[in-house]
Specification:
The protein has 109 residues and is mostly helical. 96% of the residues lie in helices and 0% in strands. α1 packs antiparallel against α2. It is rod-shaped.
């Protein structure tokens, strides 16, 4: 085989290897894109689940707080009625104002 033939074969082999390398790079890029899209979709789904869980916990806390405040208010109202029966309406009004201020403060927190 002559030097020119060997050179032609080498050039052809190099061109084939270049095409195969380019194909492999395109394939790797496609695989990477697909993987990134899957990761982004999973992250979005996780963020959505996290937001839903936070909303659920927040609603539970709000409901529990409202229930406890209602119980505290009912208990305080009963105590005020008992206080009014013993001390009179003027003292009971002062006590009711204090209780209302405490309940408002708890609501603000």
């Amino acid at each position: 085989m002559s030097g020119a033939s060997e050179l032609a074969l080498l050039v052809e082999a190099e061109a084939r290897l270049d095409r195969e390398l380019a194909d492999a790079r395109r394939e790797a890029a496609a695989i990477e894109r697909t993987a990134r899209e899957r990761v982004e979709a999973a992250a979005a789904a996780l963020a959505e689940q996290l937001a839903a869980e936070r909303a659920r916990v927040s609603a539970e806390v709000e409901t529990e707080t409202a229930t406890r405040l209602a119980a505290i208010h009912a208990e305080a109202s009963a105590a005020i009625e008992r206080f009014e029966a013993v001390r009179g309406p003027r003292a009971a009004a002062i006590a009711a104002g204090v209780v209302d201020a405490l309940v408002a403060r708890v609501h603000a927190e």
